[in-house]
Task: structure prediction
Amino acid sequence: MNADHRQEGQELEFKRAVRDFNDVGQTVCAFANTSGGEILIGVDDDGISIGLDESRLDDLQLRLSGAVQCVSPTPLHNIQVEKEEGKSIIRLKVRALATDAFCTHNGLIYTRSGSSNLRLDGPALMQFLADRQLLQYDFRTSEETLMDIDEKKIRDYLLKRSPGAMSDPFDLQDALFNLKLATRNGDLRNAAVLMFSNDPRRAVPQSEIRLVRFAGREPVRILDRLYADGTILDNLSTAEAFIFRNIKVGLRIEGMISQDVPEYPVAAIRELLINAVVHRDYFDCNGIQVSIFDDRLEIVNPGRLLPGLSISALGSISIQRNPLLYGLLRELRIVEGMATGIPRIRSVMMEAGLPDPLFEEKGGFFKVTLLNSSARELRPITDRQKKALQVIQEKGKITTGEVSFMLSVSVPTAYNDLQALERAGYVVRKGQGRGSHYLLIK
Result:
């Protein structure tokens, strides 16, 4: 980095000299817990090299090494002397830890925010550990007891999972222990409450799903509403029934057989509801919100995407926020754990002639929107975009470069037009990078 333009920030700190090696240890810990970074010693606050006393370099390196050793576990790091403008400085470079690990300094956790070190405690500490999947809600012990568990729900689950494998006499505590839902002394985990409690909402009020049908396209006038506050399996069933009674259902006749055709594919709705209950952040006090409008269906989920997962990576990587819940539903073949859910949703939406689902992160929430066929009316397209659409209709599929050439516009303009057509629900993008192309949605 050019010394004339560098400045302190998320991954860089300057020190004219080291007077407090405890502070160095905190910064090393913060870098390792965030995205890595460098401490430059012998550099003033403006990033200008002022140099260090040559006779003290060896001693300073030893003391810096000792400061790093106070971080547990000690992150990968490198300490070396460099010359800048003829002056000696020391560069202490720290590598970030893996996303499922963390380190402490004197028993405390620090992270980096801008050019400052933050000591974590309270809710911030809980969120940090949850994001790194080191603190998982479904594995935590609940205050509920065996008396709060519905034995019939456990029996029904085991019969669905393994028909004919039920043992008699039935021991509830043993069954929960074998499912990893209770400790040997009978302490329940939160997953047991979410799946099999007589009253899950008493212990986990945020487990509810709030469902509402609005009139029109704005969240103003409510036509129907429901709060699903049962177990996870009950909530999935209740939410699905509410959605299907509040969306349009058409009729398709094939030969002599007529079929009901909902305005959104059944498979897409089920997959999104399952993803919502199994991937949400149960540390968050908010419930899942399902909103139905004339032109769209929205599902808003508490919790950001986990570290290591981005919107562009959805459908290619499977990361489980609540692995115990996930395992229970996988045993019923409700989920697979193979990252096939998002591709399946996109596929059935395309087969139904509907736009790709929209995925967004908003604050601490994750939002999915399904658009129906009337959504096109919301997004008028320009005359140039209509020409691009006509070209795609003729060719069936097209690349950004082809649109640029055929309409005599720049590549960025062609890209923006194709993106507008995709948002409007006329085309869908397939592939990534140079191999990407756009297909017409019939």
